[in-house]
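Box 4.2: Ligand-aware structure prediction
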Amino acid sequence: MTISSQSTNLVRNNVISGNFYGVRLSGSTATDNTIRNNYIGTDAGGTLDKGNSNDGIRIEGSPNNLIQDNTISGNNNDGIEISGGATNNRIFGNHIGVFANGSGSLGNSANGVNLNTASDNLVANDNTIRYNGGSGVFVSGGTGNLISENSIANNSIIGIQLSSGGNNNTPAPQLISAENGVGYIFITGQLTGMLPNTVYTLEFFSNTAPGIQGETYIFTSTVTTNGSGSASFTAGPPVSVGNLTPITATATDPNNNTSQFSGAVYVFGEAPVLTSTPTYTPTMTLTPSATSNFRPTPTYTFTPTNTSPPGAATNTPTRTPTKTTSGSGGGGATVTVKTPTPSRTPTLTFTPTLLSQYQTLTQLATANTIEPTATPATPTSTLVPSATLVPATNTATATVPAALDTPDAGDGGILDGTGGGGEGGDLFGQLLGGGGFSTILWIFIGLAVILLVVGGAMELMRWLNSRAD
Ligand SMILES: [Ca+2]
Ligand SMILES: [Ca+2]
């Protein structure tokens, strides 16, 4: 079938097989045609190779056409070739190189899609491009061809091949690692040789087999290059895949120049469990304002900033702010500062007064004055010093003179050395020692008797001598 220089045709629900080209659009005025839901190169069951002997669909310089939801398999050249500078053609949701049901190998002999000096076309939105004899998508010479969110695998060369400046030969990302997390994979990589200071869209794919292809689209993120056209990136696609799953990626610049697929990295091991670490910025507000005799309860507000890596679960901060106040008072005493809680909330009461019709406006205003009936509670905070004063221990010893002997009822006050009724003894007894008094007394008495006897004897002898004269 050839549509030459004709527009707005609809080719739908046909089996177009066994021809030279399946469908051929030719000329710049062959625009706005739609080719939808046809089997091109297969049998009516969509599983047998009844390929056209050249391309399944060939567009030669014709812009703005839509190729959607077709099965284009088994053709003996490219599945689709767009050439001659054709622009703005859209290739959406086709099965290229597989059975009509999307699985099974029924490749076209050359590329799945061949963008041959064609620019600004779209190969996007869930095309399946597999088992073709060349590359999945071959871009040669044109630019701005967006290749996005397709399933591209099992093609004989590579998934996306840029040639002859196609898509400006945008370099593929370089994946460095992919680790398995819980419900996500953690990918690191870098861009080099890209446009400086440019935002690139990264698309990530998982694969069931190694290769430079992209079988299952899983994630999109963006990264901005520096002034040297380089950037490092991390990504955390929230998907679960098995260990050793090959991961690949593409990069697309803002002008829709999509790169080739990167080489694969293999998901390995288990990434650390990513937990967010919220950063708290505490602020304290006092409502109402504190006064000299009223200290309101502080109200704390925490503003969390989640710093989770991409793909990690977002934690909800649950921390309850606390406040600890301590300090010291004068003299080293420890002071506990108590924060009061207002025990009463001022309320307003309003008691309307029934007015007579003769009251003035002034009276009316006075009668309806709203007065608060409660006042803020007396503050309950006190400064409680816990230090106590401990008197010093007095260690001086006083010398107390002994009491003089005093008369007592036991001995009538005589200085006889004996105590009366528990007295320790009179002065005479004390000087002499109470225990030796009677012995000394008796010595005196003995001496006196001796003196008396001697004296008497001398007087007797004098008398006897005088008689003898
Ligand atoms: Ca064939
Ligand atoms: Ca071709």
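In the box above, the bound molecule is calcium ion. Residues 55, 77-78, 81, 110, 114 surround calcium ion (ligand 2) (CB under 6 Å).
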